[in-house]
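User: Hey, quick favor. My workstation is busy. Could you predict this chain's structure for me?
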Amino acid sequence: MIEHIAAGDGDGDETIVFLHGIGGDCSNWQPQLATFADRYRCLSWTMPGYGESTSIQPMTWPALADAVVSLLDEHSVEAASLIGLSMGGMVAQQFAVDHPDRLRDLVLVATSPSFGRPGRSDFAEQYLASRYQPLDRGETPADLAPGIVDGLVGPDPHPDARANCIASMSRITSDAYRLALACLTTWAFDDQLPRITARTLVVAGADDRTAPVSSARRLADGIDGARLEIIERCGHLVNLERPDEFNRLLDHFLAPHD
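Assistant: No problem, here it is.
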């Protein structure tokens, strides 16, 4: 079972699926659901293991991509446009390679083709240790949420952005968060990017320190025909920090095309 929000009444060829990041859930896309539900069928998922969504163990990228297929099947959608932010953007990349026949257009937001830092072979190990340490002390994602979210947003984000993301992260269990963190550190997709054939838009926040513009450029350069757009004065939570700018980009990209 995949917990999700379904909004709008577009037909099966006009479906958008929204995939949130590691600290999120289906509520993170409210500004987009409010804007696009009058023209599209919109499905915003809560990732497996989060909320009411059935857990996947072990959590792997192909299994997460298959879970998106299950959501499409539940709504009898043959192919959809995928919009994925951060970890959701990684799921979307995997989906584009594993299930190209189920994909129309692809929008990759504040994400990257691999996890880690160049020249840092120990980065994943140190990253997990730093993220697990407070959990080992008994702190919960709800305890950690304010500090983590403050480190993600850029200058003067939309007033609702911070509260939205703190609320969604506060609903994650510690066990689910651990599983997602472990999965995140296995992401390595650079050599698969040429296999993505869908029309692709890459969106980055100019002030994103988690998935910097350099990562977005690697994505756009690695996917044939991909277009890169950078939103100024914006951090990692692009769709919430700058909803009007993001929605305009998305609206233009998803407009009917030959």
